[in-house]
Amino acid sequence: MPHPEPIPLDAVLSVVGEPVFTDIPGETVILDERSGRYFGLDDVGSFVWRHLQRTTTLRHLVAAVTAEYDVNADRSEADLRALIADLRAVDLVAVGPEARG
Question: How many CB atoms sit inside 10 A of residue 49's CB?
């Protein structure tokens, strides 16, 4: 089910359940055992997935992707919002309340 509300930068992001995943050259393959569906992530998506293995925030992901790849923060944030929305739509990622700083 789509989540139309924008994700706050300090919202807590975490993986839902314990999906099985493996890294192969240039890609991560995820098996959601609950649905029996497979998902593939490219190199940048794999980088993000590794960060999602520990609770994080969108703000942290934007900073990490911007530091690791040749991309500006605005583009990074837009692309990450799209990826998180996709992962959220298939119930692989949950978005919690805003982190307290």
Answer: 21
> Does the structure show a pLDDT above 50 at 100?
no
Please, are residues 90 and 39 in contact by the beta-carbon 8 Å criterion? yes
CA distances from 40 to 35, 36, 56, 59, 96 (A): 15, 14, 21, 24, 24
* Reported pTM: 0.87
- Buried-state track 1-25, b at ≥16 Cβ within 10 A, e below 16: eeeeeebeeebbbebeeebebeeee
- Between CA 93 and CA 80 the distance in angstroms is 12
Fold type of domain 11-98: Outer Surface Protein A; domain 3 (3.90.930)
The encoded tokens of residue 88 equal 């959220």
Per-residue pLDDT tens over the stretch 20-79: 999 999 899 999 988 889 999 999 999 999 999 998 999 999 999 999 999 999 999 999
